[in-house]
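To: structure subgroup
Subject: Chain for Friday's discussion

All,

I'm putting the inputs and outputs inline so they're searchable in the archive.
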Amino acid sequence: MTLITLLFNIFLFTQHSFVLQEGDLLFQDVDCGPFCEAIEKVTEGYQGSDLSHVGMVIKIETEELRVIEATTKGVILTPIEVFLAKSLDENGKPKVLVGRMKDKYKPLIPLAKQHAQSLLGEKYDNIFDINNDTYYCSELVYEAFKNANEDEPIFNLYPMTFVDPDTEETFGIWVDYYLELGVNIPEGEPGLNPGGISRSDKLSIIYNYQAENGKE
């Protein structure tokens, strides 16, 4: 199966099975090796799911839906079908959960979208510092909704940890990573990740692309 055929099949699947809305958060289990495994191990996602990436669905000028996300390329717009194809299970289904903001917070979506779009092209935050002018995936979502809520956070920050809960020692992958960057590991500094956001009481997980009929 060619990539184009795969993307087309996924596009048809999403169009006829479930309709995304602007403001939906797409939580993804990305297979990126030790880094993703370390992220998933320290923070459990919704109902124990492994989640290492998140993006937000928005409409562009053509009224088409895209995902705005922060990746190592920076803050970018990605076609829905390309986003879903990043990580598939053994049955070819996207390893993605859909979170929808609860009614109380839906009025924030237009301003959250506007702020996120204003950050297109900004660099990726490879240090995971919530206070600088670069962005990692969860930070982009956090800042978008915080800005929309008159600078009051919607999602909670927690002390970050880079320690393996099984060994109580810092993951070797993070030791090497920060050593190469030449900065200290930000253990205990405020931050957030996709798993934590997926369990927020500000949203509901309404769809699972892997489950039969999208339900758990």
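Points worth raising on Friday:
The chain has a mean pLDDT of 90.
Helices lie at 3-17, 34-42, 80-84, 109-118, 137-148, 172-181, 194-198.

D.
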